[in-house]
Amino acid sequence: MARYSYVAIDLEGRERRGGIDARDERAAHAALAGRKLYPVEVSPTGAQPAARTQKAAPVRTRGSLSHKTRLLVTRQLATLVGAAISVDEALGMLAAQQEQSAARHIMADLRSGIQEGMRLADAMARHKSSFPGAYRAAIAGGERSGNLAPVLTRLADYLQREHALRSKIATAMIYPAALMTVAAAVVGCLMIFVVPALVEQFKAFHGELPLVTQILIGVSEGLARYWPVLLIAIVGAFVAARTALRQPHIRLGFDAAMMRLPLLGKWIRAVSTSRFVRSVSMLSSSGLPVLESVRASRDSASNRAFARAIDAMGDRIQEGEPLSGAMRKSALIPPVVVYMAVGGENSGELPDMLHRAANHLDEEFEGFVQAALSLIEPLIIVLMGAIVASIVLAIMLPILQLNQLAAG
Hints:
By secondary structure, the chain is mainly alpha-helical. It has two domains: 1-48, Ubiquitin-like (UB roll), CATH 3.10.20; 161-408, Up-down Bundle (Receptor-associated Protein). The chain has 15 helices and three strands. A three-stranded antiparallel sheet has the order 2-1-3. Strand 1 (2-9) and strand 2 form a beta hairpin. Helix 10 packs across helix 11 (290-296).
């Protein structure tokens, strides 16, 4: 048994340091994975580089890399490193061409860390908000295997697919929300400014107003009188909901409830699964064992309930089950992904099969988004038309009654 020092990342993305006894470096990696730690660096005690003492302190910068900037930087770095340019020179080139000051400072600091003797993954650990744990895990695997350029290319492809998926989700959420906002604004303006002016014409009406007109007048007067209170209440409810969702147990319950919804829950599970299996595919193809890939892929799960399911899968894999068996016991993984994982394990092409499974889920999600948008737009238009028609009807009925009285 030998003593090894390690730098690892826990499930929350925090850096952990310490020592562990193992017969060799591979066994040390397996032991750390059993502790739910992803090892970034493992070395015999006393063999750490001198620059090691500088890794713990994050470097302060005036911001962090956006998802799009991280994608562009990764793609450019993969191209430069693949062209046999050293990592520090490539980072220097990237720093020189960055327009944003935050990106420029981060690239310059990464280059400084490399020149001080750090590995690229260790230098990135000083900018955790810009380089998540799964990203650094892939870089560390590429550096250990000597295949940094291919790993960077896989990372860029992964980030590009992630960016495309985020864009589709944003489109699916923003477009209906914008239509609803415009519809609510139009109806609100009618009720607050237009209807009260018309109601003044009905004051001389001595008969009983139609029920729909009475409802319209009551709603209009209420909105005109109490709209500031209503607006404050809506904003207060929004702030209270956001504050409550910051509590771990409330967020966990909310995320679990979202995945149990009749139709939307299916697609939330599909999107979460796509991110998870694509991350596992990318990490395992970078040379990481399956268990370490699953542990590191927890960063890809924005849904807390799905992240807990990933933890359970990691525990089962640690106990000796294959990835497909761990997936099968999780109620959140679609059967088609399990079958493709079985095929990948049997053929020895697990990363490729997981990549295909993620593409399949993304294609299904794209179809769902297109179908949903094609249905939501006419539904909102019909709903808005019905509301406006009700307002017009409520205004016209008293006028028709007045005309009948005058004619009689």
